[in-house]
Amino acid sequence: MCGGALREFLDLGRQPVSDAFRAPDATDEEFFFRLAVGHCTECTMVQLLEEVPREKMFHADYPYHSSGSSVMREHFTRTARHFLDCELTGEDSFLVELGCNDGVMLRTVHEAGVRHLGVEPSAGVGEVARGKGIRVRTAFFEESTAREIAAEDGRADVVYAANTLCHIPYLDSIFRGLDAVLTGGGVFVFEDPYLGDIVERASFDQIYDEHFYFFTARSVAALAARHGFELVDVERLTVHGGEVRYTLARKGARPVAEAVGALLAEETERGLTEPATLDAFATRVAAIRDQLIALLVKLKEEGHSVVAYGATAKSATVANYCGIGPDLIPFVTDTTPAKQGKLTPGSHLPVVTPDRFASPYPDYALLFAWNHAEEIMSKESAFRASGGKWILYVPDVHLV
Ligand code: SAH
Ligand code: TYD
Fold first, then answer.
1. Domain end position, chosen among 248, 270, 292
2. How far is the CA of 126 from the centre of ligand 2 (A)?
3. CB 192 within 8 A of CB 163
4. What is the pLDDT of residue 78?
């Protein structure tokens, strides 16, 4: 981000494109890259060391649909209401969302009759949003896209991005675009998995091709300052295993909330981006891998049935790093039609419909979608009632 030197602290090995689910009869060669993470010795940004070309990840068949979780639907409805109440109160307010996916957030803005535009390169999910009446531009947001939007629609009061900015290596272009498309007093609000939570919980599966950056208040403040912006607010979120919502405004345009100083101080106190902290995280990750493999091998030897739940992008990292294949896990259930009938990337676990989970219930279920644990465990309460146990690996390997 700043041109400083990167120091590698974690190598998760050879990994596929995390959302590249494969037809069982596919014959084309799978794409692999080295999934390794480093931190910048100057600005402290934590990031991947290798970049996967964006067209390999985000395309017409991108299978992730944001509306698949009821908790996330509620989260984004609340987010939209907040913008409608606090930022989009003018006569002709305008909100742009980067990575609007299937319209899970913009739906509420659209229903309120407020001017909006979703920028979404993955045409399939964008089409789903269009079906809800949402305005979508099929494009990668970058400087050129932003200039076109500003020329055609005018400047935006809010630019919002959830679980999207961390997917974008080319931040200089993004910020030149934000400068072109935001009004003078406008805000750029984005939320992404928080490095503080990832390190605390050793949730190493947040690391995969799409997640290029792992932000902290400190690295975001440095990023903003490079581009004439300022970090004016932060909010910790519980969704997706722990995130932070960052609010950026042009320097001096808005007062800086106390929460910013508090989070910066907390990060310094924890030594969050110190080499020793990140090295200790890497050591914990290797221990979790060893424990998880040992548990799965033991359960298999004892003759127990074990399946997996939720073919998340995150699970590509776990399965490929730990070497979990169909010999240990016969299938993974998932509600996403585009994933069903396919094989998980690299590890080749068959993805099946959720009804397979109950017929009959397995002895154990590896919860790949651990970030939706509450929602899933309550929906699947009959599994535990039948004597079944969930296997979790965040923040350590344990049974529930
Ligand atoms: N905001 C949704 C979707 C997150 S998935 C949610 O929080 O659930 C990330 C999305 O970002 C994908 O739909 C992907 O197609 C999109 N994306 C990737 N690069 C982008 C870019 N440069 N501009 C806009 N969207 C992008
Ligand atoms: P998620 O953890 O949101 O994201 P990522 O793919 O980025 O790691 O993915 C959740 C996956 O789990 C998604 O494929 C849908 C699936 N899922 C279920 O199968 N059942 C459920 O009840 C929920 C909430 C999700």
1. 270
2. 19
3. yes
4. 98
